[in-house]
Amino acid sequence: MTDEALIVLESVNKWFGPLHVLQDVDLSVARGEVVVVIGPSGSGKSTLCRAINRLEPIDSGTITFDGQPLAAEGRALARLRSEVGMVFQSFNLFAHKTILQNVMLGPVKVRKEKPAVVRDRAMGLLERVGIANQAEKFPAQLSGGQQQRVAIARALAMQPKALLFDEPTSALDPEMVGEVLDVMTSLAREGMTMVVVTHEMGFARHAANRVVFMADGQLVEQAPPAEFFANPKSERARDFLSKILTH
């Protein structure tokens, strides 16, 4: 991991009406770093994740990606979005396209790459996430865990510089969570820059370089996982951990 920051948020503020959902958030993510964002519901975690690729515009502050300020619109924004892959809670796959077509769509349509080249890459990625044998099926024929692995392959097909995950396992049945986390853990080990909003504390412990704890729109504390889980500094984090780690 190099120390060069790939994603930098400075004094980021966001309101939804009277609700101040991001309050003066400062965060930088180094190349190759895996940052896991945790905290109670409504703490601003998903908004933070969505602000990084401008799915959620911010009200003040700055966000830079790979040295460039986030573009507001147009081609520059499309370019940014192709460099920052996003995996959502819901899989957002095109129901009428096969798994392989879903993975190929971005590079062919957005990047105008040659289908034959993209097809090989897409098959390689489906192999990597363990579902190459499902390539010709349609999303409805796959389990939720398989669909989420397709969504990860689709994000990787654009060869992004970073991946954002917004609660990628929260819509899954419990027995499918592991297969998705395994893929994410292997990506983390391969050095993919990742910002992951999740409730999966095991993943935070094993795969994160750093845990960021948010509450009430504020970044309350951040530390390496071993340190954070063993010795949270803030009352809010202690309270949060006591509620989730006792069950």
UniProtKB/TrEMBL annotation:
Full protein name: ABC-type polar-amino-acid transporter
A Gene Ontology molecular function term of the record: ATPase-coupled polar amino acid-transporter activity
PANTHER family on file: AMINO ACID IMPORT ATP-BINDING PROTEIN (PTHR43166), GLUTAMATE_ASPARTATE IMPORT ATP-BINDING PROTEIN GLTL (PTHR43166:SF9)
Reaction(s) this enzyme catalyzes, per UniProt: a polar amino acid(out) + ATP + H2O = a polar amino acid(in) + ADP + phosphate + H(+)
Pfam families on file: ABC_tran (PF00005)
Enzyme Commission (EC) number: 7.4.2.1
Organism per entry: Actinoplanes missouriensis (strain ATCC 14538 / DSM 43046 / CBS 188.64 / JCM 3121 / NBRC 102363 / NCIMB 12654 / NRRL B-3342 / UNCC 431)
PROSITE patterns reported for this sequence: ABC_TRANSPORTER_1, ABC_TRANSPORTER_2
Domain ABC transporter: residue ranges: 7-241
Topological category with respect to the lipid bilayer: Peripheral membrane protein
Membrane recorded as keyword: yes
SMART domains given in the database record: AAA (SM00382)
Annotated compartments: Cell membrane
Gene Ontology CC annotations of this record: plasma membrane
Family the entry assigns: Belongs to the ABC transporter superfamily.
Source lineage: Bacteria, Bacillati, Actinomycetota, Actinomycetes, Micromonosporales
Keyword list, A-Z: Amino-acid transport, ATP-binding, Cell membrane, Membrane, Nucleotide-binding, Transport
